[in-house]
User: Fold this.
Amino acid sequence: MGTVERAGDATSEMESGEEEIVGGGELAQHLMQSGLTRTEMLAAITNRIHAETLASLPPNVRRRIRALRSLQKDFVDIEAKFYSEVHALECKYEKLYKPLFEKRAQIVNGHYEPTDEECQNPWRDDSEEEELARAVQNASLTEGEDKKEGNENKPAEPPMDPNVKGIPDFWYTIFKNVAMLSEMMQEHDEPIIKCLQDIRVQMHEDPFGFTLEFHFAPNEFFTNTILTKEYSMKCKPDDDNPLEFEGPEIYSCKGCEINWKKGKNVTVKTIKKKQKHKSRGSVRIVTKSVQADSFFNFFSPPAVPEDPDSDIQNLLTADFEIGHYIRERVVSRAVLIYTGEGLDDDDDDYEEEEEEECSSEESDDEEPAPRRRGKKGGKGAAQDAPAECKQQ
Assistant:
C-alpha cells in the first residue's frame, strides 16, 4: 500500500525543485493506480491542495509556518497530557458517583423507599405536576365508572396501583426515549430490556478505557446477571500525523458471551429455503440459522478490520458512538431521560412508524408479517414489568 504524502513533505519538494508538480488529473490517475483507499486518496489530494497554497507564499513566510507547526506539536503534546489527567479525574470521581448510582438503583428496583426529605426538590415547583397527576388519576377512575355503567365501549385503563414498587420499566422507558437505543431495540428484545435493572460504568485508568455493565433481573432468556461491553481508548498523538490529534478516542471494544436458555436466543432466527436438484428437478426445504436484528448484537462486536473504509469499520464507529453516549449521557442523566427533560433535540423528533420484517418461523417465500417498532416511546412511567422478569 502506498504512503500518504503530507503537506510538509510536498512543500519541501516544491521548494527544492527536485520533483515536478503533478497536475490535478495526473495526480488523480496516479493515486488510483497506487492502491490507496478512498480515504487515503482524499487525504493525499487535500494535502496537495494545502501544499500548493503554501507554495504560493514567500519563502520567509513558509519558514515561519513551519515554526508554527512545531509550536502546534508542542501544544498537542501538552493537550494529550491534559486529557490523560482528565481521564484520571474521571476515574477518581467515579468513586464519588458510585454511592449515588447505587441508591438510584435501589429506588428504581423497589429495594429502598426514599424519605420525604429526600423527595424534596426545593429548586422547582411541583404543584403543577401534582395537580396534573390528580387529574389523570381522576380521569382514569371516571373512565372505569363509565365502563361499569355501559357508557363506554372501549376498555377502561387499569387503575393506578398506589402500592407499586420502585419505578417500573425505568430503563425500558429510557431505551424508548433515546432514538439510537430505540432503533437498536427490536420487538422481541423488549421483554428482556424490561428486566434491565441498572446500567453502570467502570472506568479504567490503565489500560485507558471503560466498561459498561448491564445488570438484569433473573429472566427466562439467559442466565447472565450482568452483560458487559469494554471499550479501549487511546490518548496519544499519532507518530505520523501528530497534529491531527483531537483528544481521547475509542479504538476497539470487546463484548461478552450471553448464556442463552434453550430456544430463547433473540439474536438468531431460523429461515426456510427451497432448494431444487439440478438434474432430478426435485425440491426440498432446508432450514438454517442466520443473525437476527437485536439490541443484544451489541455484545458481539466484530473485530477491528485492517481496511479503515470497510463497512465493518463503519459499524464499529457507530458502536463507539453508542458506547460513548451511554457512558456520558444515559448513565449520568438517567432520570432526566426517563422523564424526557434531558433528551437531545433530535431524540424528541421521532414518531412511531410501521415496518415489516420476517419472523423467525417464516419462509423466505412467505409474505412478511407487519410489526410495529417505535422510534421513540412515551415519556414518564411505563407499564409494570412483565412476568418474564423476577425482581430479586
The radius of gyration is 28 Å. The CA atoms of residues 213 and 324 lie 13 Å apart. The mean pLDDT is 79. The longest helix spans residues 59-108.
